[in-house]
Amino acid sequence: MLYLFSDHRLDTDGRELRRGSEAIAVEPQVFDLLVYLVENRDRVVNKDDLLASIWGGRIVSDSTVTSRINAARKAIGDSGEEQRLIRTFARRGLRFVGAVRTPSNGAEPAQATAPPADEMHQSLRPGLPLPDRPAIAVLPFVNMSGDPEQEYFSDGISEDIITALSKLRWFFVIARNSSFIYKGKAVHMKQITEELGVGYVVEGSVRKSGDRVRISAQLNDAATGSHIWAEHYDRGLADVFAVQDEITEAIVAAIEPQLYAAENFRARRKPPDSMDAWDLVMRALSHYWRVTRQDNLVAQALLEKAIAIDPNYGQALGVLATSYMFTAHMGWADMATVVPIAERASLAAILADSEDPWAHHALGGVYLFARRFEDSLAEFELALRLNPNFSLAQGYFGLALSYCGRWEEGDLAARRALRLSPRDPHSAVYYGIAAYAQFLGRNYDEALRLSREAIRRRGDFVGAHRVLTAAAAMAGKQDIARTALLELRRAQPNISLAWIADHMPIQQDADREHYLEGFRRAGLD
């Protein structure tokens, strides 16, 4: 369908918006919102209407809805102040109020009419594919305990996973009331795919015996029925609600990278010239998570390509900023060169999408190395509010806390990152952060143990070599300290007392002097 309004042309088949002869870049979700408002311009649509049609029944925050409305207005030259085309009706909703024409069989444009009510109902029925983003349904977990009174626990696990997955804003998560219609039914995966329009299904079971519970969960490819990931968890039931929270956290933290990996696999099967911005970001993430210098360069090139397609793609900008900050932290790039690039990308990401956790994570790193400590902590905290299971942000929050002298909190945050994602490609970094925190706490033996574990996982992680050197010297283990210093110099040839004092953003003078003393005792000058 083609809609003409003001000086704009909205082509729903070609998914294109033009102003005169100029093509306007619009994020897919914003495009869907604009189409929906134009098609329903005969009435005021409320938030529930938008959630059902644009977000597929997924629960999202008011600020997310507002940001998409603002983006739609901006795309068509409107604003919240003018409201020439999209008007807000207080406590009721929105309506497209611009005059709209549709070409009719090549003749003179005719006034469009609203679709019949039954057609509108059909367009919102489950069973149609959700647009542009992977969709997930969490089926009610099966109670295997033989005790009907335990239904609340198995249902609670499912509902908590739905809520937690809903925070992963780049995926559609089917609402509880839709996925729970399959409770107690033997349903083929293909039927769920067709009825809910999903690409992935999470299912599981709960078996309680005495004061123990085993929870099994698996992530399935809905199209093929194959398992992508499966795990089981055994826990005591001393505090049933704490167990429920812990299991939910573990499952969601495990599922997120598997979803990205599965989406990357799909993208790789497409011809390179047919990949859209989403495909490019998925491929970039697969390289980013390999945690090598070359893979980060490849990821950055893919992300730049995605941004060229969609300049307001918040996640692409956020991941790009994160990649740049990581290369600086690993010593692969000059901090002074990289930080301004990362700051521009992260601020652009937040402007495009203020609820992108990657952007706030990256900006937290930028502010940390700029010694804007309070701003850094605030950005990491915001990233974790947006996605509490974001292990990368959790680990670097621990680093920021430690650099601010709050070593006990820093240690807890780093260990939480490891608990959230025990097989994380960044686990060496998390161990190194925990090692530094323990060094600040004068727990040198624990700092030695943690830094050795970090080096075992990544021999090129200079941060762990630094902590190992300083901790061994402060513990009076001079032979270990001398050997560690030799390895540190191989990993970081430019290491010196002056470099540590200038480049490491340690807020407290006493903490900086403590760290420098460890290197002096090891023989660094």
Q: What is the secondary structure topology, with strand pairs?
A:
Layout: E1 2-5, E2 8-11, E3 16-19, E4 22-24, H1 28-39, H2 47-53, H3 62-75, E5 86-89, E6 93-96, E7 100-102, E8 110-111, H4 117-123, E9 135-138, E10 142-143, H5 151-165, E11 172-173, H6 176-179, H7 189-196, E12 200-209, E13 212-221, E14 227-236, H8 240-268, H9 277-288, H10 293-309, H11 314-329, H12 335-352, H13 357-369, H14 373-386, H15 391-403, H16 407-420, H17 427-440, H18 444-457, H19 462-474, H20 478-491, H21 497-503, H22 509-522
Parallel strand pairs: 9-11, 9-12, 10-12
Antiparallel strand pairs: 1-2, 1-7, 2-3, 3-4, 5-6, 7-8, 12-13, 13-14
Helix pairs in contact: 1-3, 5-8, 8-9, 9-10, 9-11, 10-11, 11-12, 11-13, 12-13, 13-14, 13-15, 14-15, 15-16, 15-17, 16-17, 17-18, 17-19, 18-19, 19-20, 19-22
In angstroms, what separates the terminal alpha carbons? 72 Å
Low-confidence stretches: 105-131
Which strand order spans the largest sheet, edge to edge or round the barrel? 4-3-2-1-7-8
**How much beta, percentage-wise?**
5-15%
The percent of residues in helical segments reads 55-70%
Structural class call reads alpha+beta
Number of helices: 22
What this model shows, in words?
The chain is an alpha+beta fold and 525 residues long. It has 22 helices and 14 strands. It has a six-stranded antiparallel β-sheet, covered by helices on one side. Strand 12 and strand 13 form a beta hairpin. Helix 1 (28-39) crosses helix 3 (62-75) and helix 11 (314-329) runs antiparallel to helix 12. The radius of gyration is 26 Å and the shape is globular. Residues 105-131 have low confidence and may be disordered.
